[in-house]
Specification:
The chain is mostly helical. It contains 12 helices and no strands. The protein has one domain.
Length: 258
Amino acid sequence: MRLFEAAMLFLAGIAAGTMNSVIGSGGLVTFPTLLAFGYSPLVANMTNNMGSMPGALSGAFVMRKEIQTQWARILRLSTLTFIGGLAGALLLLMIPAAAFKQIVPILIALALVLIIIQPRLQARAAKREIEFGRKKIAADRRRQISGDISIFMTGIYGGYFGAAQGILLMSILGAMFDETIHKLNSVKIMLAVSANMAAAIVFIFHGGVAWEAAGVISVGSFIGGVLGAHIGRRLPTPVYRGFIVFVGLVAIAKLVTS
């Protein structure tokens, strides 16, 4: 590997790790960078997955205080994303990633709409909390089931392609739980780790990962994960929400024009 290529992949890893810890979409930096240096889309996708995992782990370590109070839901949802990640990685080996990219912009757009209207949804849910009895219990049960299914689907997406997975997760988690956006972000990071690990298992056994490139990206993403977690923890909620929408719009534009 040439020095210039290593330097660019390292910087892309830092940028991706930072973005992934704050909201997601870091793959929209590293994936095109790998393509630009001549890696095939399949190899680039697998290598990007392997390289981004250390950044998610370092971000989770920084946010361990937020994570400690949510282990029950994290373990349940991580199981769903892990199974989904296995399925998504297997699909990647059978179906070209380019086919899936056609629907990704639509998914991101829907997620952004949910993030924008999330405060109103939570306010309406708070009003309904006044109503007790079987109707409320049934409604909560339906919301959990639909949320669990959606989380499982994001696991498939994460194992298959992964870019902007964080935006989808944040919109779903916001609809499922009445928590601060920073606590939701810590759950998002752990779910992304779960999906990445599942996909990594499949890719390691399949072969084809460009290990040199993955190693360089992983060092950068580890650094970026720490930076992004500290940045995300300090962002005010309105600014955080606005940043999510901005990154999502950039992701849509990039995917549509690529």
